[in-house]
Amino acid sequence: MNSITSIVKNNSKKALNNNFGRALIIIMLYLSVNLFFCLLHLVISLALGLPFFVDIASTPNVFLDNNINITFPSVVCSSTIALITFLVVSPLEYGLSNWFYRLVGGENDEILSVFYFFESTTMMFKSWLAKICVTIRMIFWSFVCFLPSFLIFYYGEKLFESFSAALLIIFSMASLILGTFFFIMLKLRYFLVRFFIISDRKITVKQAIKLSVKASKGQITNLFKFHLSFIGWLLISFLLAPILYAAPYYMASKALYARVLIENYNQKVNCEIENLTSPTSEPTDSNNDLEDNSVDTDATKEMFISHVIEQDEKLTNDDTNNSKNQ
After folding, report:
1. Helical H runs in 17-120?
2. What is the tens place of the pLDDT at every residue in 6-48?
3. Do 214 and 300 touch, CB atoms closer than 8 A?
C-alpha cells in the first residue's frame, strides 16, 4: 500500500475514534434522503399508473425484452423528481463533505451542521453549479474516452473489412478498458473541487475547478491508488454491517487526503510567491533553471509527506488530550 495512503487512512481512523457515532448518523441521514426520493418516485409513478418499463412484445414472463417507459407523462414525472432530488441532495452532499473535512481538521461540529449549505443561497447555488460544471466536463470526457470503443463495436465491420468479428470484439473490449481507465484518471482531476469550495467560502466554482486540476497534477496516480485501496471494503459492503463502518471511514479518509493536498498546494504557491517577491532573488541562467525544475518533483513529495506527518502528530496529540480529559 502506498505510504501516504496508509498514513491518511490511519489518521482518519484516529479522527473517527470519538466521533464515529455522529459520523454514522450523518451518513444514514444522507442515505435516507436519497432513499426517500427514490420511494417518492415509485409512489407517484404507481399512483399515476406510469410503469418504469413497458412490455412492448407482450411477454409478461420475460423481462429482458422490456423497454424503458419514455412516454411524455413518464418523462415529465421522472425529470421533475430528478430535479428536486438534485436541488436537495447536492447541498446535502457538500454539507456531508464539509462535516468530514472539518472533523479531520480537528473540529467537532454538531450533526445539524451537515445542513450548512442550505443556510446560504450563495453556498447552495455553488453546490448546484459545481455539480453541473463537473458533470458537463465528465460527459465530454466520456465521449472522448468511449467513442473509439463504440465505433469499433458498431461500425468495425465497415471500417475494418479485413478484420474478423472476434478480433473486432477484442479490440472493442480493449478500447473499452483503456477508455475506462483514462476516464477514471480524468475524473480524479476534479476530486478537490468541492473541498476547495469548502475550504474557502469566497472562491468561485470556476476557480475551484482550475485549482483542483492544478493541485491534483502529479497526484493522480496516488489518488487512484488511494481509491483502489478501498476496493476490498466495496466488495464486502453488499452486507449491511461492513458498509456501516466503511462509509464513515472512506469519507473521513477522502476528506483528510483532500485537506493534505490543498495544504500542500497552498504552501507550494506561497513559497513561489515569496521567491518572486524576495529582494535577494537574482536571475539565473538556463542551466540553473533546469536544475531547479529537476528537483521540483522531489521537493513537492517531501512537502506532501511532511504535511501528512504533521497531521498525524496533530491527531495523535488530540487523542492523548482527549484521553487525559476523560
Report:
1. 20-47, 72-103
2. 899 999 999 998 899 999 999 999 999 999 999 999 999 889 8
3. no
pTM above 0.85, yes or no: no
Q: Is the pLDDT of residue 226 over 90?
A: yes
More confident residue, 8 or 304: 8
Residue 126 burial by CB count (10 A; 0-12/13-18/19+): exposed, middle or buried? buried
Contact 13/103 with Cβ under 8 angstroms? no
Each residue of 280-300: b (16+ CB within 10 Å) or e?
A: eeeeeeeeeeeeeeeeeeeeb
The owner of cell 464486502 is 236
- DSSP E strand stretches across the chain: 53-54, 67-68
Backbone dihedral angles phi then psi of residue 53, each to the nearest 5 degrees: -125, 150
Helix (H) or strand (E) holding 255: helix 240-277
Of the listed ranges 129-143, 273-287, 311-325, the least confidently predicted one is: 311-325
Residue 152's alpha-carbon distances to 71, 173, 178, in angstroms, are 32, 9, 13
Secondary structure of residue 105 in the 3-state scheme: coil
Contact 134, 190 (CB under 8 A): yes
Reference 322, options 19, 75, 34, 69; nearest CA is 19
